[in-house]
Amino acid sequence: MLIAFAIAIMVLKGCYNDPFTIAENTFDHFFLYSDKQIMPVTVSGNTASGKMLLIIHGGPGGGALVYKDSYMDEMVEPDFAVVYWDQRYAGGSQGNGGPSHISNFRRDMVKLIHLLKSKYGAHQKIYLFGHSWGGFLAPYFLIETNNQELVEGWIQVGGAHNYLMNDSLTLQMLLFYGQQELNAGRNINDWRPIVEFCSNNDFRGRSNAIRLNQYAHLAETLMPDVIEPEFDLISNFVSLKIPLTAHLTNLFASGIQKIDEPTYTEPISENLYKINTPALMLWGLYDFVCPPGLMDDILERVGSQQIEYHLFQRSGHSPMANEPELFWSSVLDWIHRN
């Protein structure tokens, strides 16, 4: 009798701890195990909708939960589920080493999507949301074999699908706006070293690319038309209990590993014709980090006949932070129609 009771308790406890729920207000947390990496995944929102927005976050070394703000909570998650996945060597991920080549990130995405469909239902429609570095991984995933069959759509937000082109466009954009701002007498002490560096250096080479990226982030804050984000990163880390130590460790590790180095020789642009998935391109006009010229390259080359784009006039690299209501309204409208 006691044995039967104990077994019943264990079964009930096992059911209670099942992290996969179908509901309008799901908040599930579990882990994706791949190679030697343990990657946290949070699924938040309306899993009963049958649609999931899979965040492919920036970095390398960034995290997914930094995208979960009040606009996500109030505008997006009531309609769809959002999947916040920390990539290997990123965010709160842990593990004793493991491969760091970009091809492993692609395999992780395949594993994650299969897991989501296995646990939440094969009917779930997955929409990739690639931002910045994630905007390299998303098309890199889509051009491989039959991966497009796993997803319903692709949303690209200030994405770096072509690193060499990216660096060239950043240098050109810094020079153009830098000279314009100097002529207008605005922020001269900030713009002068930027213009001098871009005038006397090539965009090629890792050290130049790093400096250009630093100047790109600074330049965005100097543009008078860019709306300052309301987002409080510290409050986000505290409220969601995001492990800061793991984040900092992974940022350092991803730099040491030079995870994004192979991207310079990966011919994404030449293979965009393979992508027939419905797509939505979202860019900030003042995105110095991943300039709008990258969006033009995708629009010119992609194979999809169902592609839309929006250029946010008062945004930089993260239009979801600069113009959140307009941004998420655009995303919601597109997902509803696709």
Please provide a written account of the structure:
This protein is of the alpha/beta class. The chain has a single domain (20-162, 227-337), classed as Alpha/Beta hydrolase fold, catalytic domain (Rossmann fold, 3-Layer(aba) Sandwich), CATH 3.40.50.1820. The protein has helices at 2-16, 70-76, 102-120, 134-142, 163-183, 188-200, 206-222, 233-239, 244-257, 268-271, 293-301, 319-322, 324-337, and strands at residues 26-34, 37-45, 51-56, 81-85, 94-95, 125-132, 153-159, 279-284, 307-312. Strands 1, 2, 3, 4, 5, 6, 7, 8 and 9 form a 9-stranded mixed β-sheet that branches. β6 (125-132), α4 (134-142) and β7 (153-159) form a beta-alpha-beta unit. The termini are far apart.
Helix content: 40-55%
How many β-strand runs?
Answer: 9
> N- to C-terminal separation?
55 Å
Second rung of CATH, namely the architecture:
3-Layer(aba) Sandwich
In what range is the share of β-strand residues? 15-25%
Q: Strand pairing plus helix content: what structural class?
A: alpha/beta
